[in-house]
From TrEMBL:
Keyword Membrane appears in the UniProt entry: yes
Chain ranges passing through the membrane: 6-28, 40-57
Phylogenetic lineage: Archaea, Thermoproteota, Thermoprotei, Thermoproteales, Thermoproteaceae
UniProt-recorded name of the protein: Uncharacterized protein
UniProt entry keywords in alphabetical sequence: Membrane, Transmembrane, Transmembrane helix
Species assigned in the record: Vulcanisaeta distributa (strain DSM 14429 / JCM 11212 / NBRC 100878 / IC-017)
Amino acid sequence: MPMMPLAPFFLIVVGIIGLVVSILAIYFSLRLGRLSDVNAVHSTGVVLLILAIIGLFVANGFFIGFILLLIGSILAITWKP
């Protein structure tokens, strides 16, 4: 059981990463609503897709948030004016 003392540290790090990913997802989602350039919308959609994939592994149990972020990022990537 030598790894047991590191378990709380690991959980704190995972929690901080999940919080940062969530804040970034909210920021880029709000930024996405104000964009009109096609390339900027597509690149923001790619960033949101990457954040959705990271969030799936970090924030266990928040599967609905992953699905919504995944759908939003795919819609942003395929958006045409």
